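If your schedule permits, I should be very grateful for your opinion on a structural question. Thank you for your consideration; the sequence and its tokens are set out here:

===
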Amino acid sequence: MQVALVTGSSELDFVADVDVPLVTALEARGVTVTQPRWDDPDVAWESFDAAVVRTTWDYPQRRDEFVAWAAAAGERTRLWNPAGVLRWNTHKSYLLELEERGAPVVPTAWLGQGDRIRLDELLQARGWTEAIVKPAVGAGASGLQRIRAGDPAGQAHLEAQLAAGDVLVQPYLASVETRGELSVVVVDGEVSHAVRKVPEGGEFRIHEEFGGRNLVEEPDADTVALARWIVESTGHDLLLARVDLLEDEVGQPQLIELEATEPDLFLRSVPEAGERIADAVVARLRPSDGPGTRPVEG
């Protein structure tokens, strides 16, 4: 079997570290693994039995091109997750759909590109004294800023973001400083593992480039059930998904992100999860291996 773990144009050196446990596990199962760039015009996607989108972390600057690539590649090979999922998940408006279906999404003010909004008026109307402003198409902490009512810099940041695209404004949940963000990885509908991302002291951003740490955590039964339900509520057949949760002021989990495009799976922290993901990939490619295996997508 030939499987592509699809990467981006600028992450090749980093990818070698991120996905080593998965590559090793797939190769142990007789799979030949290649890590092509999604935007490489010379890749023959039809030569792969499947292409698993993994670290295409350059897509936010080129979303339209990325979505078009996924549609074309999905016609030439099995693409996981499928092109329709990638189109849906690369704009954070998908959170509106999940909220309508009952998911506990962090309260959000949705602003369209070019909107003229007075940030202080928005915060006052919502009863928020602090908020997070971030782009609707983005990854990591790019474009994300914590703002406070009455701060002119916050208004300037909002206007700059609205000039570039759609924007989300959400209340600042102070629990991120003490409890961090819980990321629950779901593989073929089942919770595989979880990591709590905690920021460095005095910082609210949980990303490693800002000093954040990833702590392996065993999720409780309620969290497992919530993560599974959120994935099921998408209505999509997802090979890989990551459910990111913050706690509100009374300790209840709030969905901040469902990452179904190119989630960091934290395999450096939980290398044994590479075995579970490899099993899921092979099961989809070999649906006749036994009961409980998944049908191959067309």
